[in-house]
Amino acid sequence: MADNPEEAPSNGAKAEEVLNNGAKTEEAPEDSIDSANYLDLTSFQLHDLQGVELPSSLVELDLTANRLSSLDPRIGQLRQLKKLFLRQNLFSDEGVEPLCHWTAISGLLELVLRDNKLTKIPDVSIFRNLLVFDASFNEISSLEGVSKVSSMLQELYVSKNEVTKMVELDHLHELRILELGSNRLRVMENLQNLTNLQELWLGRNRIREVQLCGLKCIRKFSLQSNRLTSMLGFQHCIALEELYLSHNGIQKMEGLSTLENLRVLDVSSNKLTAVNDIENLTKLEDLWLNDNKIASLEGIGKAVAGSTETLTTIYLEHNPCADSPAYMANLREIFPNLVQIDSTVFA
Questions:
Q1: Which Gene3D superfamilies has this protein been placed in (predicted)?
Q2: Domain residues of the chain, as ranges?
Q3: I need a surface site. Which of 33, 191, 341, 346 has the fewest CB within 10 A?
């Protein structure tokens, strides 16, 4: 669901000051971007930029949360522009089409088109040095067009759309973050060339099987709210630090013993009856097991033996084992450094 815009400033003195000076009214820290280089018009509910001065020295232009449906052609003359934020407006495919031709701003490094009315990936091939591209929260049904995105790209966000297949990703060798959550994906595929990928977010799709295609650098990975029945497939992802698998149909904890760098494991809201295959993990800090079918705490100390000292947070509520009167006392005895059990935080 799209973020709600902040309350828009009135058309009085504050808005006038920002529009005239091209800067935020609040005092900026000494190391902030110079006001002549940075213009933030967030939440002014503007329908166009008529009357707004766009200094030629602008490096960053933020037009988040307005009512814009077309691009002011003056933006295409901002030769120093590196970051352009068009989030939460009314842009259609036709509305952003001029970007394809504005070679004067081809040095753009970050382009955010999040939360608009796009139905396809726009042609951003002129931005050869683009590092961050965000087209999330639109109506995009295909990743067709991603093949034209710069091979220098480090972060790609296309969440909350209607994408059905992972395609045209092969050239993104420098990609560090890939966010495709809340789409209609059924299969993990075409990831084998993303050898530098560190974060992969695929929550709220229709994926049934883990297929990481040989990726070994992943540090954060989410497959929450999919259709998994097994967690096998992560064995070779030894760099993994955070793994999120909640809201699936997993019945057994397995394939985790090699993940020696794992700090956060979320397997809540599954069908687990026991805690397994994590006794050798020595860096685990957060363990989420709530909303499963774990009957007893017996043996949990042994099951999490490697992380007895490092574990600080554990969730086991809404399991049969949490009904025991001594539930919290037993957990604190087993794991002496716990600071949180379920929603209870200890001073």
A1: Ribonuclease Inhibitor
A2: 1-117
A3: 346
